[in-house]
Every structure is written in C-alpha cells, then in structure tokens.
Amino acid sequence: MTDIRIPYAQLQRFMSVAMERLGLPSADASVVGNLMAEAELQGSDGHGVIRLLPYARRIKAGGMNLTPQIKITSERAGMALLDGDNGMGHLVMKRAAELAIEKARVCGVAWVGAHHSNHAGPASLYARMPMMENMIGMYFAVGNANHLPPWGGLDMLLSTNPISVAVPALHESPIVLDMATTVAAYGKVKAKAMKGEMMPLGWMMDRLGQPLLDPKRADEGFLMPIGGYKGYGLALIVGLLAGTLNGAAMGSEVIDFNHDDTTTTNTGQAILAIDLSAFGDVDAFKARVDKLVQELRSSERMPDVDRIWLPGEQSQQRRMDNTRDGVPLPSTLIEKLDQFAAEHAMPAVREVN
Q: What share of the chain has pLDDT > 90, as a percent?
C-alpha cells in the first residue's frame, strides 16, 4: 500500500475546515483539527485523521454537542472537575490541561478530571501540554469501547484505558510514555484494517483462547492486556482514576462508540501536572534527566540490538521527519478523505491551501 505525504500545515488546514463543515464553531474546529493533525505528525495514526469519519458519523447522528458549555463542577486549590457537556474530547482535555497548568503554578501539583467528555485522540497530546510549560504531565482515560475482559473472564468490562507521562529534558528528547494497558490500542487494530494488514501475534485472542490475527474479525475476540494479569490490574486502576473518581462511565456503563453513534458516552479522563520549579531548579532537573537518558542509551546492549530507545524518542523523530517531509497517509485513507471533501463541498486534502 502506498503512503502519500501531505505537508503538515496543509493537513492542519484540511482537518480544521473538515471539522467546521461538520458544524463546530471556527475556533473550536481549529483546535480539534490541529490536534488531529498533530496526532498524525507524531505517528499516532490510530488516533488521528482516521477518526474523522467516525467523528462525522457520530456528529451527524446527534451523539456529540457541537457547542458545549465546558464548566467546572467541583474545585479546590489543587484540583478541579470538569463537565465536558458531551463536547469533542479534544476541547475538553485541552481545557483540562490548561487548568491543571494554571493550578500547578500555584500549588505545585494539580489534578483536573473530566466527565461527559468524548474520545480525544492520543494520550500524549495532553501529557505534553504541561511538559511544554516545564512541568511533568500525566494523562489517564477510560477508552471509548470495552475490548478487555477481567483476567480469566470473557465479558468485556474494561477498555484499553491509556496512560501517558511526559517529562522534559534539557538537550535530549523529552521522555514521553504513551501506552494502552492492552498490548495494542484498538486504534492500531483499526489502522491495520485500513491498510489491509494482519495484526501481530499477541494483540488479540478469540473467545476460544486462540490467536486472532485478522483485524476485520476484531469483534470476534478481545485485546490482550500488557503483562498478563498485571495489565488487567493497571487497566482497572486507570479506569478508577479517570472514570469512577470523576463520575464518568466505567465497566458495563461504557458505551461502544464504534457501534453506537447516539448515546452519550460520558467518557472520563484526567490530567495531572507537576510544576518542576516547586521541587527545585528546573534546568538542574532537566540536566539530570539528560544524564539518565545518556546512561541508559549508552548501556551495554544485547547481541543484534542497534540502539536502546527511550520512550518518546521515535515519536519525536517522526515529528521532525514528518514536519520536514510531510505526514504519510495511506492511499486508502486519502480516498476516504477525498470522498468526505466532495460530500462537504470543500477542497480535497491535496488541494486545500
């Protein structure tokens, strides 16, 4: 399958116009479109542009509020709880990150949770927001469909429940961990199906305990947790923090937004911001991060290992490469974007300016 590279600024414009065509106010459409394009920029193809059509389907079915009144429903000095009013998750979590940063500057540490949000793209987009302000950022979420049973069970009661942690460095690339609590995020399964590729062994299992490799048969099985029962436990804890604590959906309350376009998802997410200046000199901390990164990278490697990578390094490299060369999109996805553009009276992704 051929990838076609689209200049990043062009992709941002296309996505922003697309969201405006779907009915979002111009400023909000720009926020959502830019974040979706940024997801592609860093290689998070399962949570970026591929989500336009599912978002469009839900919006047209009335399943999301295009003009939400995102408001604080509970607040103390170092925390807040947001009601997302069933708005686009990108808008809710951008506001949550901004509020967490603001509060962390005063309190040193701040937690902002959200309920009645929606899918917001890759976790690292939001963990990076505090990081860009000389803070450590952490993001937690309940996934938007249950694809994980409790360890040893068959009932789908948990989701991929992602977590991201972003730590700034001085001269090295930042440490940015972005992971599902399953071996693969379900968005990666969708991306494999879009590309016509099989899934690697270990991503999914069918209900008889056999490996499931065809992403088009994903509904016949479930995702595997990372580290066996430990991943199941981590998915549960992340869900309690992002969902139950915030009054959001968890367990059987989670709506499968892959198959239900009208029911409010009540997605739960949370942001934690830690202001480095509250703990000492910021540059000194970053220099210590650099030192640790260099120690890890230069440590003795196993045979046939060319390089030891740190979390986020490859994503950072993709950001730089794709900024320079353009963002690669599969030709099959380009065709769907072209069809969307024709249906919504807007320039195609390769034509927008």
A: 95
Average pLDDT taken over every residue of the chain: 96
Q: How far is CA 73 from the centre of its chain?
A: 24
> Residues 206-213: contacts with CB within 8 Å, 24+ apart?
207/154
Closest CA to 135 of 159, 113, 160, 107: 107
* pTM > 0.90: yes
Q: CA nearest 30: which of 41, 44, 19?
A: 19
Going by C-beta distance under 8 Å and a sequence separation of 6 or more, which residues neighbour residue 309?
A: none
Pairing relationship of beta strands 175-179 and 204-206 according to DSSP bridges: unpaired
3-state helix, strand and coil shares in percent for the chain, rounded to the nearest 5: 40, 20, 40
Work out the number of other CB atoms within 10 angstroms of the CB of residue 211: 14
49: its two tokens: 């542009």
pLDDT computed for residue 1 by the predictor: 62
Nearest to 179 by CA among 225, 210, 114: 225
| Per-residue confidence band for 205, with pLDDT thresholds at 50, 70 and 90 | very high
**Domains, the chain, with CATH or none:** 1-60+293-353 (1.10.1530.10), 66-182+225-277 (3.30.1370.60)
Under a CB-based contact definition with an 8 Å cutoff, are residues 48 and 33 in contact? Answer: no
Tokens at residue 72, please?
A: 């604080």
Distance of alpha carbon 12 from alpha carbon 20, whole angstroms: 12
Helical ranges in the chain per DSSP H: 8-21, 26-41, 52-60, 89-107, 124-131, 186-195, 229-239, 282-297, 313-325, 331-343
Residue labelled with tokens 């952490």: 138
CB burial of residue 210 (10 Å; 0-12, 13-18, 19+): exposed
